[in-house]
Each structure stands twice: as structure tokens, then as C-alpha cells.
User: Fold this.
Amino acid sequence: MNGRRLARTDRVDSATVSSSNAEREKRAAAEAAAELVEDGMAVGLGTGSTVALLLPALAARGLEIRCVATSPATEAAARELGIAVEPFDRLDRLDVAIDGADQVAPDGWLVKGGGGAHVREKIVAAAAERFVVIVDSGKPVDRLTPPVPLELSRFGLAATLRALGEVELRDAPPSPDGGVIADYLRPFGEPEALSARLAATPGVVDHGLFPPELVGQVLVGRGAAAEALRLRR
Ligand code: 5RP
Assistant:
């Protein structure tokens, strides 16, 4: 009886330790990225739990910066911390964008969109001089695997789903731009080929495969420190 109780406690402890380790690594990467931001910069803020740790680190630096946010959640959290956020219709370029990722391949391809914000995230990353990706050590992978997040137009949805094949609609609210969030589930080889196919499918607003050309730097938290991932390009 005693032994059983101890074993269960051990399992809970190890789950707690590994999730708190991931949080520590996310924080290390987020804090390293916050140090890259300088006074006067225009900054793109991504979405997700790693970006949630970036925001206080950025606020603590007390810089004069202009920011755009990739989601209402990031915008609200940034404002709460005193970071001014403006609509992304006046700035036509950004100095830096900082965002998390779900998977990072050795050659720099990313899967993003776990939070369904990949359309705005890609627009912001593409507008930035430098796109900095912040992840914990569980995100670098040998090769990308499904799911690949999608945003689909509501109009013609059934026809788009038929054209795409193995896609699951996500139980999530529409994107802030009214798109339907879904996931492409079929295993794939070259991300470039899938990226081209998804982009060429009418009804796909955009997808969560980000090409290496977009990626400036990947900062990975390992334990309490962050290191720049060496990408094979
Ligand atoms: C949201 C994203 C996130 O950046 C990605 O899902 C990683 O999230 P987290 O930092 O919570 O691990 O692409 O659309």
C-alpha cells in the first residue's frame, strides 16, 4: 500500500519536474531574446507560452519600442505589462520578430501554429529584418511530422477539405481574421513540397510550415541557459 502510494507520488513528481524544466528552458530562451531588443526598435511579438515569458522580460528592460502583436492574447498580455502595442497597418517593416515554434528541423524549417496564430505570425516574421525563434529543448527534431496547422477560408470549406485530404478541424474559435483553424495530418517527406502544395490549394489562407529563409536565429533553452541552435543550411 505504502509502496503503491510512493510510486504514484514519484510519477506526479517527475511530470511536474519535466514541465517545470520546459518552463525554465522557455524562460531562458525568452530572456536571451529580450536582450536582443534595443531602444527605438519596431518589434513583432509572437504567440504562445514561450512568448508569454518573453513579455515580462521585455517590459522589465523599460525600452522605448513600438510593438505589433500576432494575437489578441499577446496584445492583452503585453498591454497589461505596459508594453504599447499598435495595429499592424501603419508599420511597414519590423526590426525584429520573436516567436515560439512547435518543431524546429535541423535545416531550419519550422512547424508553427499550435496556438492557431500562424497566419499573423508568418506575416509578422516576414516583415522583420530578423526573426528570432525561442524554444525549449524539446522542440528541435530530426524531421518535421504532422500535424501541420492550417487556416482555411470558411467559404468553400467542404471543397477545400476534400482537396486537401487528411485534415482535422480544430475545436477552436475562428482566427481573428475569421479563418477556420485545422490540422493537416498526413505524414510528409520534404516540407518544401508540402508547403508548396498547401499554398497552391485554393481555400488555404496559410499553413504552419515556415521556411528556413524566414528564420534568423533559433534560441534554445537548455537547463537554465540559452544557446543559439546551429542550423544546417
Ligand atoms: C502559436 C505558435 C506558438 O509559437 C507555438 O505553438 C509554440 O508555442 P509554445 O511557446 O506555447 O510552446 O505557433 O500559433
User: Anything to note?
Assistant: The first strand starts at residue 42 and ends at 45. Confidence is low (pLDDT under 50) at residues 1-12. The two ends are 55 Å apart (CA to CA).
